[in-house]
Amino acid sequence: MENTDSKNPLLVTDLLHPREIEFDSNYPREMHPKGYVEFIAQHGVGSFCDGLSVHSAGTRAQYWTEASKFELLVEGMQQGGWKDEIINPTDLKTCMVIAGDDNGYSYVTCERFGPTIFGLPHDDDTVFRVGDSLSDLFEYYCQRQHYSFPFFDPWPHCYRRCAIGFVVPPDIGFDTLLNRLNQDYGLAANKSAAIYDTNYFQDRFIPALRAKIGFYFCDDRPPEYRLPNGSISVTMILDVDSLDAAADLKSSLTGSREFDSINYGQGCVEHRPETTA
After folding, report:
1. Which residue among 154, 189, 210 closes a domain?
2. Engineered SS bond to 31: which of 6, 109, 181, 193, CB 3.0-4.6 Å?
3. Could you report the per-residue pLDDT of 249-267, keeping only the tens digit for each?
4. Residue 109, beta-bridge partner list
5. What's the Cα-to-Cα distance from 268 to each of 41, 160, 273, rounded to whole Å?
6. What does pTM read for this prediction?
7. Range of the domain at 119
8. 205-224 pLDDT, tens per residue?
9. How many domains does the chain have?
């Protein structure tokens, strides 16, 4: 699992949604970035490095209708949201939305520029070029978010995936927690993918549970809401069949099998019929 790159991200789970290679017939093939249809065919849709969602024809039709594209992108540029130094509102009218991220960025290709991906930032008015391939987008996002290696999870676009949260009490240190996870389930050889501030957050991967687990060491909430000093807030995205094992872990750490939060993935959009060229 150590050999990862922007073309071959670590897979948090092997239960993906592969499909036939297909182009979105609503857009010329020349607008599809290199490696894009192959990636969707092999992996389906999901989340890259926790926050970047690559659209299939199905999710694009669901989330990016002509009306929403005009309102959010075309009018956004017309109203000064972005400078039209590279692309213009006319380009955005017929653009193909390739991906979006949790920071509000959208990534598009335009007919005039073929497979070149452009980034439309949420917090800046300057449109930027990303590259001509999906791996260029992955590399850009990985660097921007300070990840040491890329990973992919079908969450939240898969009914088999769920996200749980709980708190580890301060009398159990981080090293003890890691040792217990490794002894009971086996941790992947990769260390933390997130490297921006490892004193604030780290993550690990547990292949046996098809899981990614995140550890938050700092509580930035107002003093009256903060956890006891030394507590570790845990978030885990895992397969639904691993929930019992996660509850056992939670019980061994806190004495209770109840999670503080649990959310389930959406129905798998990839299984809906889509148009092909």
Report:
1. 154
2. 109
3. 999 999 999 999 999 998 7
4. 96
5. 14, 9, 12
6. 0.88
7. 10-154
8. 999 999 999 999 999 999 99
9. 2
Amino acid at 60: R
DSSP letters of the chain? ----BTTBPEES-S----------TTS-GGGSPBTHHHHHHHH-S-EETTTEEE--HHHHHHH--HHHHIIIIIHHHHTTSS--SSS-HHHHHT-EEEEEETTS-EEEE-GGGTT-EEEE-SS-S--EEEESBHHHHHHHHHHHTTBSS-EEE-TTS-TTEEEEEEEE-TTS-HHHHHHHHHHHT---S---SB-S-TTTEEEEEEGGGTEEEEEE----S-GGGPPPTT-EEEEEEEEGGGHHHHHHHHHHHHS----SEEEEPPP-GGGS-----
On whether residue 186 sits in a domain, the answer given is yes
